[in-house]
Amino acid sequence: MGFYSIFIQTHNTCSPTTALEQKEVKTALTPEDVTLLSIGARTIDLGRVCVYSKCVRSLNFANDLPFNVQATLVIANQELRGTSPESQVVPPGAIAGFYVLFVSDIAQQFQGQILVQANGATVFSVSVRAEVIPLSLDLNTQEVTLAFPSGNLGRTMAETSWITNPGNHPADFEGERDHSMMCVAIGVMIGSRTIRDGEPIDTSLLQEAPPLPTEDQDVTIQGTTNANTTASISASSKQASPGPGLDRMLRVDCFFITRQRGTVPAFGTLSVNITFDPTSLPQPPPNYSALCSMHVDGGGDKALRITGEVAES
């Protein structure tokens, strides 16, 4: 879910600058003084958030005393260290706004706290809670069947699968062959033009992508996008991506999957095309079936079984 906060815009300084401010922020507060201070929230519940996502909430501190007060946040939890500013001088009758930033790099049930000090004395404690879940991507199906209808003389069949990100942080994924199964051919292919959903790929024009160099040097990759146009790109080993107009593709036996890797935006959806080309193998296997795995950075893997069916002649 998304988070919306209203921030109090202030022009307070982080430390006393005038002689009067320096004197007043050293004033010891009495219990009666503390009753004239207030905090916007005693509990911040962020709900369910994803690993690596940044969640921001506002925390307002009001000073109804007739003199300046220095409000300071004391934070012990690493997940809240991005909260700012650490301290503000709050004039009489003014409100200070703090930005509470939460980021976690592990899945956990988080419970932390922020201590709020006024002139060096702790006056409030704010608890922060969050359920941090791993990054996850959902497939619209766990099994895809590509079947040639009777009488269809085409060489390839294609279908579109959809990947959805239900989380509040972009998720990177990469497809790979499931290594528990034997495959006739495996590799990352390069050279297919960007395709529309469900459009077959001309697999005869694809070329196997060479391995990346171990050192930072130029590498040239060539691929044919159509019958009359040859595209070439140059890149360093740090940026050896296909470039505009070319897709990286995962080949598993006679199945071609594009995109082979990508990023699904928060709450977004991305399409993946799967092409079945039984003619791409020199010898047909007993059955056309493969198992692919989609690895999600910061999360778990998802399996996709692909089956091809060829009509009997």
From the N-terminal CA to the C-terminal CA, the straight-line distance is 53 Å
CATH topology name of the largest domain, in short, is Immunoglobulin-like
Order of H and E elements: HHEEEEEEEEEEEEEEEEEEEEEE
Strand content: over 45%
Helix tally equals: 2
Oligomer category: single chain
Q: What is the CATH C-level name of the largest domain? A: Mainly Beta
Low-pLDDT residue spans:
1-9, 180-186, 214-245
Can you describe this structure in just a few lines?
The protein has 313 residues and is mainly beta.
Model description:
- The protein is 3% helix and 47% strand.
- The protein has two domains: 19-133, Immunoglobulins (Immunoglobulin-like); 138-211 and 244-309, Immunoglobulins (Immunoglobulin-like, Sandwich), CATH 2.60.40.
- The chain has helices spanning 19-24, 31-34; strands spanning 37-39, 43-50, 55-63, 69-75, 87-90, 95-102, 108-118, 121-133, 138-139, 143-147, 157-164, 171-177, 186-192, 207-208, 219-224, 230-235, 247-252, 255-258, 261-264, 269-276, 288-296, 301-309.
- The two termini are 53 Å apart.
- The protein contains two helices and 22 strands.
Protein traits:
single chain; 22 strands; Immunoglobulin-like; 2 domains; mainly beta; 313 residues; five-stranded mixed β-sheet; disordered N terminus; rod-shaped; seven-stranded antiparallel β-sheet
